[in-house]
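Posting for a labmate who doesn't have an account.
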Amino acid sequence: MKPDVSITSAGGPSTDPTSTAAPSMDAGPAKAGLVDTTLAETSPKRTVPQQAVLVDCHELACTFGAGPSAVVAVHGVSVQIRPRDQIAVTGPSGSGKSTLLHLLGGLVPPTAGTISWPGLGGHPLGSPGRVGTIFQAPSLIPSLDVVENVMLPLLLANTDPAKATRRAHAALRAVDIGFLAARVPDELSGGQAQRVAVARALACRPRLILADEPTGHLDHATATALLTALLAACEQTGAALLISTHDRAIAGRLSRQWVMRDGGLVTASAAADPAGQVTR
């Protein structure tokens, strides 16, 4: 039987939530801590209509394989994500958190259900930079140095190389690793490599950031500071942030929490928006 799958590029509100220019990451170094003050000083906050829906999915499911050996990674998930949402996705290992983030970012196709990206202007893979994905596994290109890795998505989006270089350096400073710009991935620790991946996502000024265990390889102090940098960037640009995590301290700093078990979304808190962005 052919699965009931629909992937659409439009729908929901017609207002473009990104019509206001995004803040610049082109200026000088951070003045204190991990947050690069260029994010806040060079332009006003992006004005984003809170009612705009970035991602809209209904009864989303993803199964790997077929027959008796099929693995149902995600099933029956119906969610909406709006600008400025801050969501922690928690649950035990193997509960489907990573697959859900990959579905929301358009990296894997669903096997059932519907998903659309009305507030992003279409499928994320057709618009480089609108979704920033931070993978749990190593994702840097070994033959490129750190700043070239951070620049790459900007160049793929046809950003001027000089501007891409400035924004890459600013993003590295925002996560306190500007001094690593000339190193190659083999010269980095696991925690440093993960911070480069975060910088790569921030450099593009995405409308949605999907972070899969971004603090898993970091000590508590560095993890706390990295999350502070992510939250500050999202506050400045109006981006939504989803983080999958096992760390209760990290999850507790985000305003909403989704709990997954056996591929399903079993509970969801929505203190900031009781209207119900999550449905079951």
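Reply:
Got it, the structure tokens are right above this. Helices lie at 38-41, 97-104, 146-156, 161-174, 190-203, 220-237, 248-252.
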